[in-house]
Amino acid sequence: MSGIEGRLSHYVTRRTLLKTMGAGALALSTSGLAEACGLGSVKGTSTNNTKKIVIGYVSPQTGEAAGFAAGDNYVIDGIRAASAYRNGFKAGGKGYDVQIVVKDSQSNPNRASQVAQELVNSGVDLVLCASTPEVTNPVADFCEANGVPCVATIVPWEAWYFGRGAKPGSAFNYTTMFFFGLAEFAGCFVPMWDRMNTNKLVAEMYPNDADGGAFRANFPGLISKAGYRSLDGGAYADGTSDYSGMISKFKDGGAELFSNVPLPPDFNTFWKQAAVAGWKPKLATVAKVLLFPADVTSLDTLVNNIATDCWWSPYHPYKSSLTGQSAKDLADGFEKKSGQQWLQSLGSIHSLFEIAHAALTAVSDPHDRKAVAVQLKSLKYTGISGPLDWTAGPVPGVAIQQPVGVQWKKGSKWPWSMYVVDNSLNKDVPLNGTLTPTNG
Question: pTM of this prediction?
């Protein structure tokens, strides 16, 4: 096990297990958990003997992570109306009606596990889930324990894989995912830093939680290979209201670049205090925050030229494998229907249902959970999120997207918009903005 993988496994696994199952569950193995729940008999088989395929979907539609799911209803309405779903799936020479059952995790890992159990008990053929480890991990854990195929997205792959107890080279039997990880964060941010004339000292705002631990343990090593040095502001508790000590450390240390992975309210508080204190890094590259338009409201002009990662946008030149609509079509449709600005999550959720269609129609019996799971782990296809290949790794069951670097700038249609300013990792996506220092 490499140092990176070992540290991720150590700190994420404990947190995930404690939050998801409670300390008493640590004594249960995966199979023991299934037996304790009285579900051992369903592993690998479906209780659905009808000519209907049932797909479950779990996301944080309410609670602190609800912003991730703001576009879910629009996407799922479109999926249900798409001919492939409306007319039913063909598999093994037979036709099947398709039902989608939506569950809200309420941004709570215990609730996520509970609704996963409800779906499994009802006899679903496949579970899809999205947005943050607090949703994806407990859902995937329950599905894995009970032999139900599951696909997750919008979660760093290390947090999903190592956070659930996997070891390098090992594979889950029933659960898969697609997104990206720490190497891609570095591959997205470093090229933007390289275009700034700086002293290569990066101020790092990493909280005392799973995401902060992942970055603290691994990101400095990744960026040091490109000649960058780290100035850690120190682990802090989520919900901290006074960042004056950290800001003084960054200011006195002369850090000219900024990296973070905080909760959105914490970043807003920090960034406002930094402006008052006069610490203004040449380029701020943020993770986990400023992913969605609603995140920028509280900062207003302070958001100008802050950079972040973008994994899907109207500028991505990809089309749906289900409907043929382009990424721009999907984004424009959401804006017209909702009156709100497009979201990165739109493409990811649409892709989940592309993947479900591809896997369930490729097997002779869509109720054969083992066969569906095998199909998911060997899937290669191109859709609205671009090419996805589960056979390429980096570990079994994981497909990687390549993000681009974007900056928030004054928009024409909306007050603030993302502009693609660096496409080092994904040349398919055209540039439509110029990389500008966050603070000149």
Answer: 0.87
